[in-house]
Amino acid sequence: MATVVGISKADIRPSVREEGNANIALRKQVDERYNGLKVNRYSWWVHWRELADYIIPRRYKWLVTPNMMARGSPINQHMVDSTATIAARNLSSGLMSGLSSPTRPWFRLKIGMLDSTMTGPVSIWLAEVERRMFRVFARSNFYNAMAVLYFDLVVFGTAVMLIYEDSEKVIHCYNPCAGEFFVQNNHKFVIDSQYREFTLTVSETVQMFGWENTSPAIRQLYNTGGAALTRESIIGHAIEPNNDGRKLGIPAHFKYRECYWEIGQPREYVLRKGGFFEQPFVCPRWDLVSNDSYGRSPAMDALGDIKQLQQETKRKAQAIDKLVNPPLVADVQLKNQPASLLPGGITYIAGVNNIGMKPIYTVMPPVREIMEDLNEVRERIKAIFFNDLFQMISQFPPKSNVTATEIDARRSEQLVMLGPVLERIQNECLEMSVERVFAVMERAGLIPDPPAEVMGQNMQIEYVSMLSVAQAAAQTSGIERLFSITGNLAGLDPQIADVVDFDYALEKYSDLLENDPKLIRSPDQLQQIRQQRADEKQKQEEMQQSAAMVEGAKNLAATPVGGGRSALQSMTGLG
How many CB atoms lie within 10 A of CB 234? Predict the structure, then answer.
């Protein structure tokens, strides 16, 4: 995390539109890169469309066009079975409650070996910083935005969240949906650039950027008023490293620059441009292949099963429909004659030997077999979305004699599979979010002045969420096995116990279980206790030696050696 420094404030208000070469150069930069990113994203864009059709259609923009009339059209025409949507929702909800729950602390700040659970001025300061940060997270829309981000992540494999400074609630978050955003890696294969396209009405554009910063087309519509205020235009937005900011009109001390513009308008018009001291967006990805900028998702793995489920569900409905309401063949005499197919209904025809109606063919669909196959497909989809991890207790049959040990073992197996994903979410989302909010609060004067011993030191983030603790606890089994093997071998050769550093092993074991650090004594306390024990042992040995000497002297004094002398007198030459 960032180095702890004194409180500093900086004016990062977005700049107004400037006429001149800087704006033209900036528009040229963002226009050309926007077009390139759009071409590179196309294959992902098409794939996202298919995922959205079958799982989460409301979080996707196929075409970003100013067409408000069509946005209320039905969006789930491909979905007749919602198992995949529910499974994706369960996974995203599990990640939300397990990684960044709004109801319990999910991270802890540390400086060296000190954290907020200890005593002393540094720990007290860390605890106060954590309290204020959690309050900012809770009062803003951060947790609502994170819930949307997790849902996008498990379906599309890539999700973006913008974290802006806000004068009322310190921060405000935005979630561009799939189809709006474009991202790109740097040379380390880490996302450092985010572009997007979205639509705003004329009134929204003027409210957001100011009338004087808009193009002549927007100004004219705004001045017209009335229905013209609801007209929409496509807005471009770019956030990227500020490597060459001076020639683009962005101060060089900003690490990232931002630009809003109206797509398709002349290049001298820029709606807003400005800079950030740190990256103002996060972009977690579920799984990566080589140097791809966009991630792969569980939904991509489950797409074949999802399509099969939808198709087979339709066929099952058709089979039941033909069974209940089969196609009929009728006597020609019934043509244009009233006929009743209702229970108890009567149809009159001439002649009693020929039945008036009967099924064309007998349909006996294997409904039970179809249902069993559908359930198999549903279970596969749930497994791909890790529902068996987050709903483990409900997976066991009622009144089963499952033990806590068995539940922990199964959870450990699942967490091993989910481990790389959790680490990537922490690195690409949670850590950057904490750093961004800390920096925003510091500039706003909401971080208390740090103690003198904190200045210039690096601050680390330790995750203490439910999944992080469970994942760490799963590692304790290795320590337990090591203790068991060492104990068994020590019975054969006691020197084996010298191989293991039991002090460090117990400290590591307690840390993985997320116990209170005060349960483990400090090295100084251990040294003092062991020194006292050694001193007491030495005193006991000296007392035992003294007692043995007294007893020996007594025995020698009572042992005669002749001539009226004892063995003690003979040895000492006395008497």
Answer: 16
More confident residue, 437 or 361: 437
Q: For residue 458, what is the DSSP state?
A: B
Pinpoint the alpha helices (H) of 162-227: 202-209, 216-224
Helix (H, G, I), strand (E, B) or coil at 131: helix
476-504 core/surface letters (b: 16 or more CB in 10 A; e: else): beeeeeeeeebeeeeeeeeeeeeebeeee
pLDDT bucket at 15, cuts 50 / 70 / 90:
very low
**Of 241, 272, 287, 4, whose CA–CA distance to 122 is shortest?**
4
Q: What is the pLDDT of residues 488-545, one digit of tens each?
A: 888 888 888 888 888 777 777 776 666 666 677 777 777 888 788 888 888 888 788 8
| DSSP assignment letter at 66 | S
CA distances (Å), 529 to each of 119, 217, 387, 507, in order? Answer: 21, 81, 49, 17
Residue 480's pLDDT is: 78
Q: Which pair of structure tokens corresponds to residue 558? A: 């009572």
Q: Residues 6 or more apart from 123 whose CB is under 8 A from it?
A: 114, 115, 116, 117
Give the 3-state secondary structure of residue 62: coil
Query: Going edge to edge, which strands form the sheet with 170-174?
Result: 170-174, 161-166, 281-282
Quick one: tokens of 123?
């720990």
Q: What is the pTM of this model?
A: 0.78
pLDDT in tens, 17-40: 444 688 899 999 999 999 999 999
* Strand 161-166 with 181-185, pairing: unpaired
Give the mean model confidence (pLDDT) for residues 233-239.
Answer: 95
Contact call for residues 247 and 3 (beta carbons, < 8 A): no
Structure tokens at 382: 């749930």
CA-to-CA distance for 168 and 174, rounded, in angstroms?
A: 16
